[in-house]
Amino acid sequence: MGRLPAAGTRGGPGRLRSRGETPLLPPAAACPMDAVGVAAAAPDAGPGPAWQSKCPWGAPSTTSISCSLADVMSEELAKELQLEEENAAFPEVVAAAEGPFITGENIDTSSDLMLAQMLQMEFDREYDAQLRREEKKINGDSKVSISFENYRKVHPYDSDSSEDEVDWQDTRHDPYRADKPTTTPRRGFIGKGKDITTKHDEVVCGRKNTARMENFAPEFQVGDGIGMDLKLSNQVFNALKQHAYSEERRSARLHEKKEHSTAEKAVDPKTRLLLYKMVNSGMLETITGCISTGKESVVFHAYGGNATEDKVIPPECAIKVFKTTLNEFKNRDKYIKDDYRFKDRFSKLNPRKIIRMWAEKEMHNLTRMQNAGIPCPQVVILKKHVLVMSFIGQDQVPAPKLKDVTLSSEDMKKAYYQILNMMQQLYRECNLVHADLSEYNMLWHDGKVWLIDVSQSVEPTHPHGLEFLFRDCRNVSQFFQKGGVAEALNERELFNAVSGLNITADNEVDFQAEIEALEKMNEDHVQNHGKKLSTFSSDGDPPIYDE
Ligand code: ADP
Ligand code: MG
Questions:
Q1: What class is the 266-398 domain?
Q2: Would you state the CATH architecture of domain 400-532?
Q3: What is the mean pLDDT of residues 229-250?
Q4: Which pairs with CB-CB distance under 8 Å and at least 24 residues apart come from 414-419?
Q5: More confident residue, 216 or 410
Q6: Using a 6 Å cutoff on CB, does residue 298 contact ligand 1?
Q7: Catalytic residue, candidates 339, 436, 453, 472
Q8: What spacing in Å lies between the alpha carbon of 453 and ligand 2's midpoint?
C-alpha cells in the first residue's frame, strides 16, 4: 500500500476535521469529477490546454495513481498513522509502553482485571506526561513556578524507588540521626534571592530551640527532639528552660542538704573532719563502726587512743553524733527552750547551734550524774555536735538495752531497786529528771543498770519537769510490773518516792492535775520573783527504798 504525500500524513480523516486544518481538497460537489481525479489533483499540476482553462481546477494529471480511495478511507491506515504520530509526540510514553506489561511475551491477558489495570496505568502515565508538558509550558522561564505534582496519577511507589533504599552496611551515617540545624550567620539570614531564610524563620527557630535543649542539665530528660524534627516555639522553649533551671537548682539543693546532714549512717564532711581530727590527734585510735542510728543521733564505736596530760581515754569509746537534720529536733524544742540554763541562748541561736546545745546538754547532765556516782557513760570530750564518752559494753559489743535482755527475777528485782535509787539521786543530787527514761535508755552491763541518753534531761523546776518525771515513773513501773517484780510501786507511788512530794490523788487524772498545779505555782513564782524555786518543797526526805 502506497503512502500519501507528506501533507496528507497529518492524520486520518477524523484528524483532519478535528484539528480544523484547511482542507487540501475542495468539497467534492464543487468539481464534478470522479474521486480518482480529485485525489490526483496535485498542487504541482501544470497549466493545461485552453479548453482546460475553463475549469478552474486545471487539467487532470496524467501521473499514475499511487493509492485508491478505499486505501485512504481505510480504518487500518488511519490507525497506523495515528500510532506513528503519537510515537513521535510522546516518545517517553512509548518507551514505557515497551515494558513487560504491554509487549512481554509472558503477559497474561486472560485476566480482565489485569488488563484493566494495565490500561489504567497506561492511561495514568499518559495523563502525567501531559501534565508535565503543561507545567513546563506554563512555567517557562518564570522565577515563580507552579506545580501539578498533586494532580499526578502515578504514585511515587509505582516509580523507581531505588533512591529511597538505605544502605544498611554503611555505618558512617546514621539515617535516623538527624543533622543538627545549621546556625544562622551573624548577618541574620542565609540563602540568596527568593531562597532567603532569616533567623526569625519559624521552622529554623523551632529546630534551633530543640537543639538548644541539649544544653539543659544531663538529668533533665528532653528526649530525641532533633530526631523527631521537633520545632519548639520560643514560648515553649523558654518555659522548658525555666523549668530545667529550677530543677537543676532543686537537685543541687538536695545534694547540698545531703552533704550537710548526718542523715542515716553517713556523716557530713564537717563531722568527718571532726572525727578525723580526733583520730589524727591520737585521742582515738580507730573508729570501728556504727552502733546505732536513731532519729536524733548516730552512735559509733571507737577504740581509745593515747591519754593526754589531763585526760584518761577509756579503751573503748562511744561517739554520739547529733544529727544535723533539724526536723528531728523540732519536737524536742520544749525540752530546751524552757530550760532556764539555755533559755537566754536559745532564742539567739541558729538551728545548727541549737543542735550543738543538745550535745552540750548531754555532756553537762552526764557529768552531773557521774559526780553523783550514777552508772552512766563518762564524758571524754565534746566537739561541736559530737560527744565522745566511754563505751558501755565490751569488744565493740554494746551492752544490751534493758528491753532486750532477759534477766532472772532476782536481777529484775535488783535492777528495779537500783533504778529507783538512781531516779532519787538524779532528782535530789543532780537536780535532774531524765525525761526519756525507759527500758530503751537503760543498758544492762556488769550486773547493773546504766543510764544513757540524757540530752533531753531537765531540772525538776522546768515548766514541764514534773510531767516528764511522771512519765518516766509510768514507764519504769509498767516495765517492772510486767516483768514480774511484785515489789514494783505504781507510777504515782514511784513519783512521790522520787520527788519527795506527797500527791495524794488516787487516780491518774487527778494526780496529773495536781502535778500541773504545782508546775503552775512554780511558773507564777518565776513571774513574781524573777527567779525559779530552788526546789519543790516536800514534806520531808523521800523514803529510801532498798531491796
Ligand atoms: P538516741 O537519742 O538516738 O536514742 P542514745 O544515746 O540512746 O541515742 O544511743 C543510741 C544507742 O546507742 C543506745 O541505745 C545504745 O545501744 C547505744 N549507745 C549509746 N551510748 C552508748 C555508750 N556510751 N556505750 C554503749 N552503747 C551506747
Ligand atoms: Mg535512746
A1: alpha beta
A2: Orthogonal Bundle (1.10)
A3: 83
A4: 414/448, 414/547, 415/444, 415/448, 415/449, 415/480, 416/476, 416/480, 416/485, 416/487, 416/488, 417/487, 417/545, 417/546, 417/547, 418/448, 418/449, 419/449, 419/476, 419/480
A5: 410
A6: no
A7: 436
A8: 5
